[in-house]
Amino acid sequence: MEQTHALGRRKAAVARVYLTAGKGNITINDRTLEDYFPQESLRYIVNQPFAVTATEGQFDAKITLVGGGVKGQAESVRLGIARALCEIDKEAYRPALKAAGFLTRDAREVERKKPGQPGARRRFQFSKR
Predict the structure, then answer these.
(1) How far lies 54's CA from each of 44, 57, 65, 109, in Å?
(2) Are 8 and 83 in contact (CB under 8 A)?
(3) Which of 25, 67, 5, 73 is nearest to 45 (CA)?
(4) Which of 30, 71, 80, 129 shows a CA-CA span of 20 to 30 A to 104?
(5) Percent of the chain with pLDDT over 90
(6) CA atoms within 13 A on the CB side of 119
(7) Amino acid 2: pLDDT
(8) pTM for this prediction
(9) How far apart are CA 53 and CA 42, in angstroms?
(10) Closest Cα to residue 19, out of 2, 33, 42, 32?
């Protein structure tokens, strides 16, 4: 099996995922998964597609991450890995990944701040007199 490429996005984070057959090593921006995401909950999010498809330890992932915060980055990696697994074997992995909701791009973005207001929706306090 050659290298499989997929893209994952969430908020402002973009993850380029390259999957190859291997022993389960995940490298993010030339750092290990444990080094890049020290929080256990974020590592769990990243490994969810492998757990759902029962492919832990079968693929090596080389990931390039740009932008966003840690939670958005972790979720963008999850989407990228899920898409890459679908490219490898659509019939085997797609139903499980789709049922878990890992193939859906979460389109929620931060709404921009408008001029003449302190925030996106917030208005300055109204004074009648």
Answers:
(1) 14, 9, 25, 31
(2) yes
(3) 73
(4) 30
(5) 95
(6) 6
(7) 86
(8) 0.91
(9) 19
(10) 2
φ, ψ dihedrals at 74, nearest 5°: -60, -40
The residue ranges of every structural domain in the chain are: 4-100
Report the Cα–Cα distance between both ends of the chain, in Å, rounded.
73
Under a CB-based contact definition with an 8 Å cutoff, are residues 13 and 78 in contact?
no
Q: Give the amino acid at 91.
A: E
Residues of the chain with pLDDT under 50: none
Place of tokens 């992932």: 61
Consecutive H or E run containing 75: helix 70-88
**Domain 4-100 adopts which CATH fold?**
Ribosomal Protein S5; domain 2 (3.30.230)
Tokens of 83: 């898409």
Q: Residue 23 corresponds to which tokens in the numbers above?
A: 């022993």
